[in-house]
Structure formats: structure tokens, C-alpha cells
Specification:
Blueprint: E1 2-6, E2 9-14, E3 31-37, E4 40-50, E5 56-62
Antiparallel strand pairs: 1-2, 2-5, 3-4, 4-5
């Protein structure tokens, strides 16, 4: 897995996606999640996509609200 950040957006490349299941929770419209960044929990919304070659990326957009839960 690798992660790239551009402002309030993160793109996570899922390596060997067929061997993992977590990213499937974010297919379709996606779901909220919490990331820990520099020791601080940040709320976001993640959407997973699989391209025509089978590569999977999960795009996370940070939100301004507090994490749920």
C-alpha cells in the first residue's frame, strides 16, 4: 500500500487487492472513515475504485467535522 497526499485528499494504492478485503467497504458511494495524521484523528470520506487493469485506489477526502464515534 502506498499513499499520496494533495491538500485535503489522499490517494491510497492497494497492492494485491484480491488478497485484501478492507477496501471493498468503500466501493460505490464510499463510506466515512477516520485517519490518524500526526497524532490527530481526522474525519474523511473514502471511495474505492478498481480500474480496467484490476488496480485499486481508495480516494479519501478529509472533512471539517469531528470523527464519528
Amino acid at each position: 500500500m502506498t499513499c499520496r497526499r494533495a491538500g485535503d485528499k489522499f490517494v491510497i494504492d492497494v497492492w494485491i487487492p484480491e488478497a485484501k478485503t478492507w477496501w471493498r467497504n468503500f466501493l460505490g458511494e464510499g463510506r466515512p472513515l477516520t485517519l490518524r495524521l500526526d497524532g490527530t484523528e481526522r474525519a474523511g470520506h473514502a471511495v474505492a475504485r478498481r480500474d480496467q487493469n484490476g488496480r485499486v485506489t481508495v480516494t479519501v477526502r478529509l472533512t471539517t467535522g469531528a470523527p464519528e464515534g
